[in-house]
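Dear support,

Our group has been running a series of protein-ligand predictions, and this particular one with nicotinamide-adenine-dinucleotide is the one our PI (initials K.S.) wants archived with full inputs and outputs. We had some confusion internally about which version of the output was final, so please treat the block below as the authoritative record. The input we submitted was:
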Amino acid sequence: MSERNTPEASSEWSRRDFLRSAASAGAGWALGQAAFAQPPASGPLSASQPASMPSSAPASAPRKADQVNVGIIGVGEQGRVLIEAAVRIPGVRFKAVCDIWPYSQKLAAGRLKSYGHDVTVYEDYRDMLDKEKGAIDAAIVATPDWMHAEHAMACMQAGLHVYCEKEMSNSLEKAKQMVLAQRATGRKLQIGHQRRSNPRYLHAINKLIHEVKLLGRVTHANAQWNRAVTEELGWAKTYELSQETLNQYGYATMREFRNWRWFKKYGGGPIVDLGSHQIDLFSWVFLNNPKSVTASGGTDYYKNYEWYDNVMAIYEFDAPEGVARAFYQVLTTTAHGLFYEVFMGVDGSIEISEIPSSGNNAFRESRAPEWDKWARMGLLGRTKAPPVSLTSEVIADARPTKPLGAWPLPVQLAKPAHQPHLENFFDSIRYGVPLNCPAEIGYETAVAVLRANDAVEAARRLEFKPEEFKV
Ligand SMILES: NC(=O)c1ccc[n+]([C@@H]2O[C@H](COP(=O)([O-])OP(=O)(O)OC[C@H]3O[C@@H](n4cnc5c(N)ncnc54)[C@H](O)[C@@H]3O)[C@@H](O)[C@H]2O)c1
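Confirmed final output from the archive:
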């Protein structure tokens, strides 16, 4: 496998209750703004503005007044989330916005202009690349998954560095082409698995699991993303695209254009949309790609869509200390437990989530060496008492089932969730720091994730060959 970044509140699927009317869409945008109190940076770096340094950046990286000019393709829900994070990074200037939907164009360009970024709006990315030649250095691609390859490759071939949202593609063949295009052009290609740059995940996985070996041998993981029933996304009549425009850009209907995730042509369904972030972590923790996947799922509730609305998958890994297994579930009919990941070792577990209220603790097994020294060193917070005090009435035999005390993870992220990953991308362009999710890692994760859908369809265990993960 390629070198994984051993020494790296998303609300993607739920955000689709966003536009059911023009009015509700406006409200959603305002809420997004209120969530981030920190004002955006404007203009190039100045002496009073600290350079944004991801945890992967060397402390001595020069604080240059380098400005990176950016064009963004696809400014729907996620494109606008990325804008909100990127405008907070000193030296990042948006110059161009491209989207085929006037509604998205208007929201994004209006917001950017209010932040002092003077952007030109384009409908077709080819016009953007033509007219902005020499004026932009990098592109952010946040279009639906099926367009990532076309957009990212055209940008790299035009000399731009690219931050491309996950899933790299809904087609492994197209994802492979993206890796090849990255190598041929020598441009940076960061894939949007943003947990790989989140300091809390870096602390939990690189520091506590891999370096300190807090959990001992990690034998299991489980993760879930549970989401309540959602309505189909709608659109305001005034923003309905003509059939001619839809045809021109490959969308059969306005309904498919808005609800693209659920259709095989455009996306990969919930396990790809949501699970890719979390399944990506399994390989990071187990330091290997999976060797097999078994999965069950179906289109059981949303009969009007194409993709499986629930999937339960088990991955097996050859981890450095032996076999490890990981269970993943994505449900779209209940929000029970929300979304989080758990890594379990013989000495303890770590439960973590991109939203810390859903997981932010390490749990020590009673057999493990004392953890106080790690707390004294600041690697763990101070332990809280076990959640239940056991008495003989509560439990008959407490020896193997005693609840574990929680030790909070002390690292917090005080900025939008996607900002560190964007910082890593821009600092890679400016200072040459390594990308936390380069094309090869994005591809390996795409293989692991997309094949879960194949395992559901095959209704059997699928074995991976190591060469499947290589380009
Ligand atoms: N990293 C994360 O946490 C995260 C979260 C949500 C979404 N995503 C990813 O971001 C991408 C976008 O998702 P979204 O939720 O914003 O979807 P969305 O439907 O809200 O937005 C997609 C935008 O792309 C535009 N578009 C479609 N085809 C286009 C084309 N050919 N050229 C230009 N613009 C085009 C649409 O008009 C729309 O504005 C997806 O790949 C998704 O998987 C990532």
